[in-house]
Amino acid sequence: RSGDSEEEASSMVWDSQDLRGRAEHNEEQLLAAMSVDPGRFPALNDLLLEVYAVLRPKPTDYEQRNALVDVFSKMATRIFGNDNGFPVVQAFGSFTMDLFTPKSDLDLSVNFSAEIEDQCPRKKKMKVVRKFAKVLYSLQRDGIYCGVLPVVSAKVPIVNVIDRGTGIECDVTVENKDGMTRSMIIKLISSLDERFQILSYLVKTWAKIHDVNSPTAQTMSSMSIISLVAFHLQRRPAILQYCPRSLPC
């Protein structure tokens, strides 16, 4: 019987090349069933580029977010003091990836060290979030912020707050080194080819319009969508690809 179970288990393991072949075959069938006039591609390309241009943030959007990062960093110093330049508040997410729109949230991380790995205990993160929330509640009463909402029970303890002056929603976490690392990687990928940034903007916008860009609603996160775009652009013909210097691309 054990032999039978092993055979059944092995039969359930799909070969990656077989899966790729099946996916490509299905895609070819779907494309063949579509009636597309290649002569309209240039007009579609121009239209999508116009949409992309509208979605792109203006210089003031960058200035406002950089100013908020500075404000929160000074706030962290007032709350926790200064220990060799720490804590410091740093941005990550769509802003640092340069994939944000004027309506995007601003992801912030309160960092107490320059370590790449997150070494901060969960209890400390919860304590930091509570202290930040206490100060933000006070500033909310003064009319500077609104919508202060600490969620210490979340997998990643966080406090949400909206800056009244700009209307930007800020999501403040603690030692979010994982998020910062992913953001740097996506920023690097984005620098390889501008089409990655353009397609990421367009697919994210499509996903928001169709309500499939909300992890809280059990749909895709923005990082998942961007990762799918990166995967798509590595398929044949590959737009994003790694080429060692010793090999021709």
Structure description:
- The protein is an alpha+beta fold and 249 residues long.
- Among the domains are: 59-176, Beta Polymerase, domain 2 (2-Layer Sandwich); 193-233, no CATH class.
- Helix content is 53%, strand content 12%.
- It contains 9 helices and 5 strands; from the N terminus they run ααααβαβαβββααα.
- It has helices at 2-11, 16-33, 41-55, 59-80, 94-97, 122-141, 177-192, 194-209, 222-232; strands spanning 88-92, 106-111, 145-151, 158-163, 169-174.
- Strands 1-2-5-4-3 form a 5-stranded mixed beta sheet, with helices on both faces.
- Helix 7 packs across helix 8 and helix 8 packs across helix 9.
- The longest helix has 22 residues, at 59-80.
- The radius of gyration is 23 Å and the shape is elongated.
- The termini are far apart.
- The relative contact order is 0.10.
- The mean pLDDT is 89.
- GO terms for molecular function: nucleotidyltransferase activity.
- This is Poly(A) RNA polymerase mitochondrial-like central palm domain-containing protein.
- InterPro entries: MTPAP-like_central, NT_sf.
